[in-house]
Specification:
The complex is a heterodimer. By secondary structure, chain A is mostly beta strands. Helices cover 0% and strands 52% of the residues of chain A. The relative contact order of chain A is 0.33. Helix content of chain B is 0%, strand content 51%. In chain B, the strands form two sheets. In chain B, strands 2, 4, 5, 9, 10 and 11 form a six-stranded mixed beta sheet that branches. In chain B, strands 1-3-8-7-6 form a five-stranded antiparallel beta sheet, with no helix packed on it. Chain B is globular. Chain B starts with a strand and ends with a strand. In chain B, 33% of the residues are buried. The model of chain B has no long low-confidence stretch (mean pLDDT 91). Classes of the chains: A mainly beta, B mainly beta. At the A-B interface, β5 and β10 of A face β4, β5 and β9 of B.
Chain lengths: 113, 111
């Protein structure tokens, strides 16, 4: 079984719609992250959370919001989707500590029409 | 903005060749990570480096943490077709800090 799962894996939506992407992890990690990837580019951080009560903006948080419902769950919402939010979205988790490593989910491919 | 410069941006490999790619920065990083991403999938961790000068292998992959802490390289020896994909370097400046990604190196097979 995958340690980091994302649902849905693919989603098509229309401009102005609200959508939520879900992430769950069984690794027992405190830290969770949401990234987006655009074609030919590396990953850019949207939001991150170091524990259930902690939410932090990343470099491209505008137009997005998150909810950390439990240690194992971190959701990303697009309140009013727009076409330039079409991208691949990845959730990641990590332990805290000096030897930190991030583990990624399989991704959600989002198309906003 | 992106702080890690990864090169080359793309390369063609022939089976059996050794390939190298590197990542440089003007900033010091305390951790370097190398990931591989296959089409439609999330990045998968290949090698993690935590100390300057560290040289670590994972099968045919070898990565080094530069002594200045501003660079890292990844080498793939005796490449095979399944090595095709996009390789990303990523760095962490301090424990608990965010991961910064390079732009990726796309590895393709020579026609």
């Amino acid at each position: 079984d995958a340690d980091v799962t994302q649902t849905p894996r693919n989603r098509i939506t229309k401009t102005g719609k609200r959508i939520m992407l879900e992430c769950s992890q069984t690794k027992g990690h405190d830290r969770m992250y949401w990234y987006r990837q655009d074609p030919g580019l590396g990953l850019r951080l949207i939001y991150y959370s170091f524990d259930v009560k902690d939410i932090n903006k990343g470099e491209i948080s505008d137009g997005y919001s998150v909810s950390r419902q439990a240690q194992a769950k971190f959701s990303l919402s697009l309140e009013s989707a727009i076409p330039n939010q079409t991208a691949l979205y990845f959730c990641a988790t990590s332990t805290s500590g000096v030897q930190e490593t991030q583990y990624f989910g399989p991704g959600t491919r989002l198309l906003v029409l | 903005g992106q702080q890690l410069n990864q090169s080359p941006q793309s390369m063609f490999i022939q089976e059996g060749e050794d390939v190298s790619m590197n990542c440089t920065s003007s900033s010091i990083f305390n951790t370097w990570l190398w990931y591989k991403q296959d089409p439609g999938e999330g990045p998968v961790l290949l090698i993690a480096l935590y100390k300057a000068g560290e040289l670590t292998s994972n099968g045919r992959l070898t990565a080094q943490f530069g002594i200045t802490r501003k660079d890292s390289f990844l080498n793939i020896s005796a490449s095979i077709p399944s090595d095709v994909g996009i390789y990303f370097c990523a760095g962490i400046k301090a424990a608990g800090n965010k991961l910064t990604f390079g732009g990726g190196t796309r590895v393709l097979v020579k026609p």
